[in-house]
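pasting for ref. prot 1 ->
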Amino acid sequence: MQTDIDPRNLIGRKAFDRNGLKIGTVDEVYLDDATGSPEWAAVRTGLFSRDAFVPLAPSEVVQEALRVPFDRTLIKDAPDFGVGRHLSPEQELQLYHHYGLDVSAPAPTPSPDRDFGRLAGGEG
């Protein structure tokens, strides 16, 4: 993903799959606790649908939209953990496996007072 983009500026952008099909609109951006960099986006998949988590590392912003390099069906079938909450390391691992992303690098051990997957622009 483009690192010069403020993660709060992703909120409200349209999201498209690798074939150019609309997935929905970015509702929230989740930051990695260890690095503070944007890691996941929650994309509202429809008016009465849920939010689907998509990985930001392989995604890019193209013409004011988020382009996610996965099929729409895979994205809509992603594990549903609800939004507005922290993602646990186990939930993140499930998402990495769902998208077939490399998780060989060991995750940093969180300190007891820190949460993974905090929201961009949130306190803490």
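and prot 2 ->
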Amino acid sequence: MWIVTDNPSSHNSLSTRTRLEDHPRIHHAFIPVGACWLNLQEGWWRIFRKAALTGRPFANRDDITYATTLATDQ
């Protein structure tokens, strides 16, 4: 069985490598650094986060809904 993950240090930590050594049928493959940007959802999320969320305080759920509506309408 193969597990495909991104590159955070937790995925390559000593405890993770030790556990994988104890289970030889499990193989770990890392996606290339920066490959997440090949996924169109990641690019959209970056734009959305910048347009709707960055630097804005939200007092309640309605504020978040309003910011989300404005950003997605663009």
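The chain is about 50% helix and 10% strand.
Strands lie at 2-5, 27-30.
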